[in-house]
Specification:
The protein is mainly α. It folds into two domains: 3-154, no CATH class; 158-202, no CATH class. It has helices spanning 3-8, 40-63, 73-76, 82-94, 113-122, 137-145, 194-201; strands spanning 66-70, 105-109, 148-150, 170-171, 179-180. A three-stranded antiparallel beta sheet has the order 1-2-3. Helix 5 (113-122) packs antiparallel against helix 6 (137-145).
Length: 202
C-alpha cells in the first residue's frame, strides 16, 4: 500500500459497516484518482496529528530531563499544502521507506542532546530523517541514544462525554459470565492495529 494511503487508512476495528462482494479497485483504475482530490477531511486529520505531536513535544521538552525530535514522516512533512503532502509521501516511497514503520517522535535524555543534534545536523537536518536509511552511521548514533518512540494519535471524541465513560463492569453472557462491557460500548479505547503488532514486538 502506498504510504499516503497508509496515513489515511482506517483500522478494521473502527469500521462499523462491512461491504461484501466488492472487489478491490486499484487507485490507477479510477478515471479521477481520489488521492488527487483530498479535501478538508484529510486536512483536519493531518492537522490534528501534527497538533498532538507538537503538544507532546512541548510538554516533554519543558520537563528538562528529556527532549524530543520528530522522527516519522508526519512530524517533518508539510502540513498546510495538500499537494505538497502527497508529493512528500511519493518522495518517501522513492526513497524506499514506504514499508518501514517509524514512530512519529523519539525521546532522549537531555544529557545526550548535543550528540543527537550534531548527528541530525550531519544528515542535513530534521527534515532529512525520513529519507535516511537506519543503517547510516549518524542514524545509528541517534537511535542508540533513543529511550522510546512515540506514535501520536488524536481523537475527535471528548472521553468524558462518551456514553459509556466510567460505566461499571457487569457480568457478560458472551464472556461466560466474566465482568465486561456491552458489546457496542462507546468509551475511550486503545487499539493496536494488526499490522503494527509484529513491528512493535520486534
Amino acid at each position: 500500500m502506498h504510504p499516503f494511503e497508509k496515513t489515511l487508512s482506517v483500522c478494521v476495528e473502527t469500521i462499523e459497516f462491512e461491504f461484501k462482494n466488492k472487489a478491490f479497485t486499484e487507485w490507477s483504475d479510477f478515471l479521477l484518482n481520489p488521492r488527487r482530490l483530498r479535501g478538508s477531511d484529510f486536512l483536519m486529520r493531518w492537522s490534528q496529528g501534527v497538533w498532538s505531536e507538537k503538544r507532546i513535544t512541548q510538554t516533554v521538552n519543558q520537563h528538562g530531563e528529556f527532549f524530543i525530535i520528530p522522527y516519522g514522516p508526519s512530524g517533518t512533512a508539510p502540513n498546510h499544502d495538500i499537494r505538497a503532502v502527497e508529493l512528500y509521501f511519493e518522495c518517501l516511497e522513492t526513497a524506499g521507506l514506504g514499508e518501514v514503520k517509524r514512530p512519529d517522535l523519539l525521546v532522549f535524555k537531555k544529557e545526550d542532546e548535543r550528540l543527537v543534534i550534531r548527528a541530525v545536523e550531519n544528515l542535513g537536518g530534521i527534515s532529512e530523517l525520513p529519507f535516511t536509511q537506519e543503517t547510516d552511521a549518524n542514524m545509528q548514533d541517534i537511535l542508540s541514544k533513543a529511550l522510546v518512540g512515540i506514535e501520536c494519535e488524536n481523537s475527535l471524541w471528548q472521553g468524558k462525554l462518551m456514553p459509556d465513560y466510567k460505566v461499571e463492569l457487569k457480568p457478560q453472557k458472551r464472556l461466560g459470565g466474566k465482568l465486561g462491557l456491552r458489546k457496542n460500548a462507546v468509551l475511550p479505547t486503545i487499539i493496536i492495529k494488526e499490522e503494527d503488532r509484529e513491528p512493535l514486538q520486534v
